[in-house]
Design goal:
The protein is 39% helix and 21% strand. By secondary structure, it is α+β, with helices and mostly antiparallel strands. Helix 1 packs parallel to helix 4, helix 2 runs antiparallel to helix 4 and helix 5 crosses helix 10. The chain is elongated, with a radius of gyration of 40 Å. The structure holds 3,4-dihydroxyphenylalanine (DAH).
């Protein structure tokens, strides 16, 4: 009997289990009542009384070893079985689309604007949306009581207690960041400044109380109007395509002299005339000009040594032109039917 136990112990230890079939054969041969080990237990009663205890212990050890080996391989098989299920997936099937959302068109266009100017060596700058009258108007050469202040309908901030402060406001343009930049850094300065701006306007297809601008500023020795023209000319072609025509129209801003507005050929009608371009064939994309020497001086820059140009453009306007969007309100209504069209742009 003890010989047999030894032999079977060796068999159990050596048994090769590589697949489910072998595991099942092992179970039949060594685990359970009808296995060889079960038969040995049946034969235990024939063992001499004085040896029975010792032989019983050996037999139990064999039974436990067989059971342990079976359990171990069963767990292993289950784990590998899971893997083989994964491999059974058809990897050539089209992927399930990711419905997490899409990038907002204004974000797409802002990123593109930044990319174009970064390639021309402009860095990024930022400033506060709640601003003082000084940075939004005074430092930009808007004289006290100057009618230019009324060009932009301003939201003033209420102080604690409900009193309206006439010197704290929501910035009406990103030009405030120009001032902060010129005060804080020495020329040469070359930066663009994207951000939100606010105006007290009734919301319509063409106007909103909240919109986005990108300001640009370049101050150095010998910066001229030609540099401004070249920069914005290059921008327009990169943004709207190489066939785009650009024109500069004299204009007025308190902080630039001379000032110009920049128009491009209407992308909707290709210059033939439509209601978007009011039948002129041209649409405005930016205001610009040479930084007024008064502004340079107010910001602590010597206007005899340095000159500069500045520009400001509306991101909504550029996005509308680029994608043929005719109503400004679509940008803020969160209508997924509109937003989804910009999937993967
Ligand atoms: N701040 C102007 C506006 O909101 C746009 C603008 C015009 C910015 C000319 C400039 C500039 O920097 O030079 O209408």
């Amino acid at each position: 009997m003890q010989e047999k136990i030894k032999e079977i112990t060796q068999q159990v230890a050596d048994y090769q289990i590589d697949n489910k079939e072998q595991l099942e054969a092992f179970r039949i041969a060594y685990v359970g009542r009808k296995s060889v080990i079960g038969e040995l237990f049946d034969g235990l009663k024939e063992v001499a009384q004085e040896d029975r205890r010792a032989v019983g212990q050996e037999l139990n050890a064999l039974k436990n070893a067989a059971q342990a080996k079976f359990d171990e391989f069963q767990t292993l098989m289950e784990a590998t079985a899971d893997k083989s299920v994964a491999v059974e997936f058809d990897l050539t099937l089209p992927v399930i689309p990711n419905t997490l959302g899409s990038v907002h068109p204004l974000t797409v266009v802002r990123a593109r604007i930044i990319e174009i100017f970064e390639k021309m060596g402009f860095s990024l700058s930022d400033g506060p949306e709640i601003e003082s009258d000084f940075y939004n108007f005074t430092a930009l050469n808007f004289a006290e009581n100057h009618p230019a202040r009324e060009m932009q309908d301003t939201f003033f901030i209420e102080k604690k207690g409900g009193e309206v402060a006439d010197d704290i406001l929501l910035r009406t343009h990103t030009s405030n960041v120009q001032v902060r930049l010129m005060q804080n850094q020495k020329p040469p300065l070359r930066a663009i400044m994207p951000g939100r701006v606010y105006r007290n306007e009734a919301i319509s297809a063409r106007a909103h109380c909240l919109f986005h601008q990108v300001e640009g500023l370049y101050v150095d020795k010998n910066v001229g109007f030609k540099d401004l023209k070249d920069t914005l000319f290059h921008f327009a072609k990169e943004m709207f395509g190489q066939d785009t025509k650009v024109r500069y129209r004299p204009s007025y801003f308190p902080f630039t002299e001379p000032s110009a507005e920049i128009d491009i050929t209407c992308l909707i009608c290709k210059g033939k005339g439509c209601n978007v371009c009011k039948y002129s064939g041209w649409v405005e994309i930016a205001g610009s000009g040479m930084v007024d020497p008064n502004v340079l001086e107010l910001c602590g820059i010597d206007s005899k040594e340095y000159t500069g140009f500045a520009f400001g453009m509306g991101i909504e306007r550029i996005t509308m032109l680029k994608y043929g969007i005719k109503d400004l309100r679509l940008f803020t209504e969160n209508d997924v039917r509109f937003l989804r069209q910009f999937d993967g742009v």
